[in-house]
Amino acid sequence: MSGSYDLTKGGVLKTLMGFALPFLAANLLQSLYGAADLFVIGKWGAAESVAAVSTGTQVTQIVTSLMTGLTLGSTILIGRSTGEGNMRKVREVIGTSLTLFGAFALLITALMLGFERPLLKVLSTPEESFGKTMEYVAICAAGNIFVCGYNAISAVLRGCGDSLRPMYFVGVSCVLNVALDFLFVAALGLDVAGAALATIISQGVSMVLAVIYLRKSGFLFDFRLSSFRLRPRLAAELARIGVPISLQELMVRISFLYLMVVMNRCSLYAAGVIGVSSKYDVFAMLTGTSMASALSALTAQNIGAGKPERARRSLWYALGLAMGVSALFWLWAQISPQSMIRLFVKDPGIIAAGAPFFRSNSYDYFLVSIVFILNGYLNGREKTLFTMVSCSGGALLLRIPMVWYFGRHFAEDTGKLGMIAPIVSGIMAVYTLLYVLSEGRGRKKRTNQA
After folding, report:
1. 30 found inside a domain
2. CA 291, CA 294: separation in Å to the nearest integer?
3. Which of 154, 256, 344, 347 is most exposed, with minimal Cβ within 10 Å?
4. Does pLDDT of 427 surpass 90?
5. Would 154 be classed as within a structural domain?
6. 125 touches 67 (CB < 8 A)
7. For residue 334, is pLDDT > 90?
8. How far is CA 443 from CA 160, 197, 305, 449, in A?
9. pLDDT tens profile 280-312
10. pTM listed for this prediction
11. DSSP conformation letters of 257-272
12. What letter would DSSP give residue 346?
């Protein structure tokens, strides 16, 4: 079963769900094996190990943030070309994308290893966990080629309308990662190094199996060395779409890193809280992020096929689905945040510091999902300049100043610190929605005039 969908035909809700559900399943599996590191460390490691994985994960997510824009750029360009029926261009985009990702992986690995210590200093990494954080980040950096390779292949398939096979590949990685976490950390006592090794080994195996499977299944790209060609015109087009998304993701990540700096300065317990909270952020917003990614590919194909209204209807369906799931996590955080934290860590200091943070931060589950989905739709329409300005402005002009102010006046009040994300996301959701509505009215007016 190929898992491919013609995203330009059929019922809108049925097509969206059929394409988005494998997205959701793949992201859920990816989140589970990301959470497995912290879960196992929380059960078999000390507080400094939890803080090390928490801080180290934030650093490695910088790579993911940069990579998101480039992968989404290839998904959108492939989706548009698929909608136009231009398969030759699709193959050329795939070759250019994979070549760019290989170069990116090597560059980012060198930068992470070369600037690891000063970066962790800037992040105010607690002294008690500094050495373990260095170890975790160094091992993860060595596996960047696998992370980039897997994500590049998944982006290519999704642009072609195939969201099922990426789910299979990440499923293999998830099962292997969890098994290796228990082997390396719980059984062999390798602590944070074991968690990092489990991650890069599982992603490496997944990437290799994906390439072997696609070659044997007659995929339209043959993965031969001669096919990995960098075509300047396509590289420029990918950069036009993808670089703004990468920059916005980087700015958002920097703003969250600044929040982590403030939490790290508060105490070792607060540093652990931000790591546990980030895991729940991922799960609570999973439907939103999955719908947003699916919506980008779906919108790109429908724009290529000349069906913009079909893409717009998908946007409203995606918003409704995401809000329902976010509500469940918000309710859990309001009723029993302690039970959420205990799933990952046993330290009473982290649990006590985390409960008020979870209650206030959980409102962001709704608001940031709205932002994600609206941006996913706009990215599919190649309005990436707006989303870059919006998200970068939200990070630099809203989140960072608020983190500074709250950190200065409420450094010991984790409940107040948890309010920052919902306030910022709420403001961004309002002006992004207004832009989408105005953009839709402008397009209808132009159509009527024509």
Report:
1. yes
2. 5
3. 347
4. yes
5. yes
6. no
7. yes
8. 27, 50, 16, 10
9. 877 787 888 888 888 888 888 888 888 888 888
10. 0.66
11. HHHHHHHHHH-HHHHH
12. -
pLDDT at 108 over 70: yes
Tokens of 80: 């548009």
Both tokens of residue 282?
A: 């991922």
DSSP states along 25-49: HHHHHHHHHHHHHHHHHHHHS-HHH
Tokens of 404: 């500074």
- Specify which of 9-23, 33-47, 252-266 reaches the highest per-range mean pLDDT: 9-23
Q: In 3-state terms, what secondary structure has residue 4? A: strand
SS3 content of the chain, % helix, strand, coil (to 5): 85, 0, 15
Mention every residue, 6+ apart, whose C-beta is less than 8 A from residue 370.
Answer: 288, 319, 322, 323, 425, 429, 432, 433
CA 19 to CA 8: how far, in whole Å? 12
- Whose CA is closest to 205, among 149, 158, 135? 149
Report whether pLDDT(269) > 80. no
Residues 339-349 pLDDT 10s: 988 887 777 88
φ, ψ at 221 (rounded to 5°): -110, 130
**Rounded to whole angstroms, how far apart are CA atoms 11 and 228?**
37
What mean pLDDT, rounded, does the chain reach?
A: 82
Other beta carbons within 10 angstroms of residue 44's beta carbon come to: 17
Calculate mean pLDDT across residues 163-182.
Answer: 86
Question: What's the mean pLDDT in 252-272?
Answer: 70
Q: Which residues contact 354 (CB under 8 A, 6 or more apart)?
A: 272, 273, 276, 277, 337, 338, 341, 414
Residue 3 banded pLDDT, cuts 50, 70, 90: very low
State the amino acid at position 314 in one-letter form: S
Q: How far apart are CA 237 and CA 234, in angstroms?
A: 5
Cβ(39)–Cβ(122) under 8 Å? Answer: no
Tally the domains of the chain: 1
Q: How high is the pLDDT of residue 359? A: 92
Predicted confidence at residue 266, as pLDDT, reads 64
Has residue 299 been placed in a domain? yes
Q: Whole-angstrom Cα distance, residue 148 to residue 151?
A: 5
pLDDT cut 70: percent of the chain above it: 93
Residue 426: CB atoms within 10 Å: 16
Helix or strand (DSSP H, E) at 422: helix 420-449
In a domain, 6, yes or no: no
- What is the span of the domain harbouring residue 352? 12-444
Paired tokens of 87: 């398969």
By three-state DSSP, how is residue 162 classified? strand
- Which positions ≥6 away from 248 have C-beta within 8 Å? 69, 387, 388, 390, 391, 392, 395
